Fold this sequence. Notes:
By secondary structure, the protein is an alpha/beta fold. It contains 17 helices and ten strands.
Amino acid sequence: MLFFMLDSSGVLSIILRVLLVIGMYQVLKKIGERKWWALVPGIRDYMLGRGADRRAEGIMYMVMEIIQLVVRILMSALKLDDIEVTDDNAMFILIFLGAIALASIGSLVYTIRIFSGLCERFGVSKKRCIWMILLIGRAMPLLIWGFGKKYVAKPKEEEADAKEGAAVSGIKVKAEEEGLSINIEERTASDLFKKKVLLRDIHLNIRPGHMVLLLGGSGAGKTTFVNAVNGYEKAKADIVLNGTSIYDDYDQMKFRIGFVPQMDLMRGTDTVLATVMDAAKLRLPSGLSSAERKERAEEALRFFGLEPVKDRLCDKLSGGQRKRLSICMEYISNPDLFILDEPDSGLDGVMARELMEGLRHIADQGKIVIVITHSPDRVIDLFDDVIVLAKDSGMTGRLTYFGPVGEAKKFFDRENMEQIVLRINRKEEGGEGMADAYIEKYAEVCHG
Length: 448
């Protein structure tokens, strides 16, 4: 830092910047981050912060760098360096200079915090490192740690706990002409330049007319799974419904899938009939006449027992009626696949039972119904199959079982669904931590 102040525009400054990049490259390599980010100002500091277990500080340092860059560009564009300071413009110039000064101070503070984390990883004195940064900048400690053979980075806390997870099964189901075929290789998300695997290795076939329970503890990937299946958040996968790829023909297939989220999507000031008519306009072919759409809407209302309240405002409906109306809005297009996220949430046992019996009736018409519920045992007799998801030791959502409900109890050696969840939940979540064992056991069963 001192040398930068002495000769910020000279050869020494250029040399120190080159040395900084070289040192950053070597340190990023040692701490397991992508070393080529050393060439990109701002991002390289975030990567360094993440590798130092100081991710938040890395983000803030990057923000400070961006602020300084933007202010300097504006000052250059406005040619403030050449403007004579007067009473009229003094405050304006002071604001720009103050912004740079505050960002510079912030950068220094976050630099010290990031390097404190690096000191912990390399097992060196924090005090000596901080004085080195203040006197000669960041390049020297990075070069020493990067090229010094005795400096070996300790695993980060998250790396120390991380494991590879259960082995990939190698299973892939054949797409059937009827039913739902799911082959999810993986579903990933980006976490600021780092890929995170949310789901992996999920393969199953669901037959028409089956009502399926989607079971798993919190964070097991249930919502991610249904979003991948219905095409809302595509995965690296092949999802085939009745012989047609959902991903390849999404514009057509989205009308053959009914998805009912946990929160209803209706206007409280509309009537029940108007709500279903609006859904009909969105989901039915545009060539239908208004009379045909109304006929179809009233048919759906009768099916769900909502005809007596069709002129009532949605705000005046009971909890059970609102849930049935949410399903009715999706049923209007007569989809082949229904997916429902906690449709019985907030309902008492009697109302939940009545709702699930309605879903059973839909499945009995040859539809596939997939349901997430946190109270599965009170209605388990209505389901044909169960999909059980769990986080493996690598914190990735995996398939631990798919098949008949009765066989699931035998497979996990448990009497009910809640006990199955406890069996596979992680120990820190109050479970038995058996997910990896059952993932591999299920793969062995599938391989025969």
